[in-house]
Hints:
By secondary structure, the chain is α/β, with parallel strands linked by helices. The protein is 36% helix and 22% strand. The longest helix has 24 residues. It is globular and about 60 Å long. The chain starts with 5 loop residues before the first helix and ends in a 5-residue tail after the last strand. Iron/sulfur cluster (SF4) binds next to helix 7.
Amino acid sequence: MQDLNTEFIERVRDMHEGDTYVLTTHGCQMNEHDSEKIKTLLDTMGFREIDDENEADLAIINTCSVRHSAEDKVIGHIGRLKHVKKKNKDLKVAVCGCMMQRKESRDYVLETFPHVDIVFGTNNIHRLPQLILESDDRNTTVVDIEQSYSNLDNRIFSKVDGHSAYVNIIYGCNNFCTYCIVPYTRGREISRSPEDILEEIEALVEDGVNEVTLLGQNVNSYGKTLEEKTTFAELLHMVHAIDGIDRIHFTTSHPKDVSDELIACYGELPKLANYLHLPVQSGSNDVLRAMNRHYTREDYFKLIDKLRAVRPDISLSTDIMVGFPGETDEDFEDTLDLVRRVRYDNAFTFIYSRREGTRADVMENQVPKSIKDERFQRLLDEVYAIQREKYEELHGTVQDVLFDSISKNDDSMMSGRTSGFKLVHAPYDADRIGKLTPVKITGGNTFSLRGEIVHATK
Ligand code: SF4
């Protein structure tokens, strides 16, 4: 953790070495990654992670603001901590993340929950040591919100389960999809310099990482804010050139920014996972226009055709939302038609929910819940039927799987992902964890595959 304010870190360690913390994360991979940075900082300050808030010295909630329901969950959690704190007087409560970046939500928490000790945001995780020290000296809430992105948070190199790591490449979003709050909480797009990103990945490789996921709300518009222009495809080539990296993923993409240069990478870069998550949201041009997505279903089909021309077996996933204001039966049929034509390997499906502060929230023709639910079920049936066929197509094939860990539900098995991001379980072999391994697929279901390791014949 180069050039982070070590003086504050040491002072916190003097005061809190051995203290325990519970960190709860809500929301997306960006938040997951921010939580890893918070953990790395706390570990460096001598804190120890536990999972019982009744016993902890510090409870941190990393919040999400993407839907009202996400905020309600957080509010409930903060409320519960008030009672925990009555019994566990030394408990320090900290709240961070997207919800705290939103003034309305932050003010509500500060007015309603005086038992919260620290409030910080998505752009100043590196300030946590100072905030803990300030909070030690005060019995009022310490609030520190940075509206603009700070590169200092990137100096906290964190990793997950040994061989895999997320690496932020771009922050914020300029797209203003009408249902989304992210541009209001995470701010405008800012790209990290390629040098910064490569330095972090090289440090992670030295630390045993061989798989990276390049992260951003919209990675395809990487480089637009850089003085020396570097495109996302160029950055992928640079990361691909790093020795020790075996597999590269990236998320999240926006169809309006998928370039031919990026599509060509799927033919040029063998370490690039044979997988693309490309949120479509709807198959109806009227709904796409109302969502402010800046592409049509025809544009989207062209992209898919180009991708499959370069990698016919590319694995595709997407995000689809039903029940957007004004969505008619015909619009929904267009969505089902698009799903049948693209045939996704998997899809993340959502029911539109109103989000205060977004343009869609004040739109007319909000769709009744009963219709949303009925469409959602029909969408699931369509998506899962195709997904099952896609998983069955791999039975009998040999796939390169990067195993992560012991399987969650069976410790005689281990689990990992194919290059197409499909989940595979195989008999546990400690030597194969973190290594690309040829696996003969012997069976599975709609959501995962089973297989046997193919041992090299002498
Ligand atoms: S691209 Fe749209 S949905 Fe994604 S974060 Fe940006 S505004 Fe939200």
